[in-house]
Write a structure and sequence with these properties.
The protein is mainly alpha-helical. The chain is about 75% helix and about 0% strand. The protein is built from 20 helices and two strands.
Length: about 425
């Protein structure tokens, strides 16, 4: 693609993200309009349009949203909310408990699915305590993104790294006789949790409840638990033996099972209409548009040019190379989805390691920590963030970018700094 089209792609991409940050209520419209322009200009070929969208993620979100709707209706989130309220002394610790819980699940389940599972509990707690659900749900989203780098199955970026470097599940815990990225992420989680305690230090309202919700149906809980188990099991199947939309098919299939059972129990189709209404089309359309936008700048060769420039300015100094990889990844992942970025940069990082004649583990783990955590900086930097804001918007809460970043920026920078230091110390 010629230089003029590359410049146009960069300008259009930059304008798109500025508008996304400034006009949160119109994000889906902006993303789709930008995608249409990229296609109209020929930057995104029509033949590649369908494949630029990550259908696995969209199906997974839609299916999990539907199952979560049944989960909420069963009153299980209300019961979990009552239990957390009973075990925590104030709002601050309730938020911390939710963030730690979401991090634990996210180490083994996709970040988006984690947010969809835990956010309803946060919503219930917020309503019972008569507080805004915005802070706890933001904390849940960014905590889930953090732990996504901990294991092979925690995030798509981890799976990509495992495929590139030939890592298995246990290599994330111990690799080549050294502690793996899992322990680095836990250290980062500890420090970032301390940061959350500071951020929410004024939330000292006492929490109490005199009632405990009664669960009306345990089957949706079984469905969600089955989703977790099947997603973990599916991660161990080699990519060559399963379709790319495997996770999405699992989530949709379990949702359909839940719908059919609901219809049989109620002897009506009203449950189907209710569950389908709870699938947030705004979020799905926004993500689809963003996938096309990011795919377009990759198609234009913009990311490749950035990678070449990156290699050129790094020189032969390993520390400079490592530092640039980590912090450049944080910056880029704050504005574009980290999945295509990591997929593009993995072979670049391997090439750099070959040139410098060093083990690629240092640069691989630096890339993973920077790219995975960097998505936390902005509300549109990660699919989990977009999903969390979609849940809040559906409940009538429009979150400004500044409000999101008041929590996400200190959390992210502290976590990345810990990871940056520890990966360097362990792998040099």
């Amino acid at each position: 693609m010629d230089e003029t089209m590359k410049i146009i792609a960069v300008v259009l991409f930059g304008a798109t993200y500025v508008l996304l940050l400034v006009f949160p209520r119109k994000r889906a419209h902006i993303a789709v309009a930008s995608a249409v322009v990229f296609v109209a200009l020929g930057i995104m070929p029509l033949g590649k349009l369908f494949f630029s969208v990550n259908w696995n993620v969209l199906l997974m979100i839609a299916g999990t949203m539907g199952t979560v709707s049944l989960f909420i209706e069963s009153k299980m989130p209300a019961l979990l909310g009552d239990i957390i309220i009973a075990k925590t002394p104030n709002v601050k610790w309730a938020i911390i408990a939710l963030s730690l819980f979401s991090g634990l699940i996210s180490a083994f389940v996709d970040n988006v699915a984690t947010v969809l599972m835990i956010a309803p509990v946060a919503m219930i707690i917020a309503k019972k305590l008569e507080i805004s659900p915005v802070p706890p749900i933001i904390a849940i989203a960014i905590s889930s993104n953090l732990q996504g780098a901990a294991t092979l199955v925690g995030d798509t970026t981890s799976i990509l790294l495992g495929g590139q470097a030939g890592l298995d599940f246990m290599d994330f815990f111990f690799y080549q006789g050294r502690v793996g990225i899992f322990w680095v992420v836990q250290a980062a989680a500890l420090v970032s949790t301390l940061v959350l305690l500071v951020v929410f230090r004024k939330h000292k309202q006492r929490v109490s409840t005199n009632t405990k919700a009664t669960v009306t149906d345990y089957f949706p809980t079984v469905l969600l638990s089955g989703t977790v188990v099947l997603l973990i099991l599916a991660s161990f199947i080699p990519a060559s033996y399963k379709p790319e939309i495997t996770n999405g098919l699992i989530c949709v299939a379990l949702f359909i099972i839940g719908l059919l059972r609901s219809c049989i129990r109620s002897k009506s189709a009203s449950g189907i209409r209710s569950a389908l209404r709870d699938i947030d089309l705004f979020t799905l359309i926004l993500l689809a548009g963003l996938f096309v936008v990011v795919g377009s700048i990759i198609e234009a060769g913009v990311v490749e040019e950035i990678s070449k420039f990156f290699v050129m300015i790094s020189g032969d100094n390993l520390f400079i190379v490592y530092t640039l990889i980590v912090w450049f990844s944080v910056l880029v992942s704050a504005i574009i989805d980290n999945i295509p970025y990591v997929a593009t940069m993995l072979p670049v990082v391997a090439g750099i390691a070959g040139i410098l004649e060093v083990s690629p583990a240092l640069l691989y783990f630096g890339l993973l920590s920077g790219a995975t955590l960097g998505g936390n900086l902005t509300p549109i930097g990660a699919s989990a963030n977009i999903t969390a804001l979609g849940i809040l918007r559906k409940d009538g809460h429009e979150v400004r970018s500044l409000d999101f970043m008041k929590i996400s920026v200190p959390f992210t920078l502290s976590a990345v700094l810990v990871g940056y230091i520890l990966v360097w110390v362990i792998w040099t």
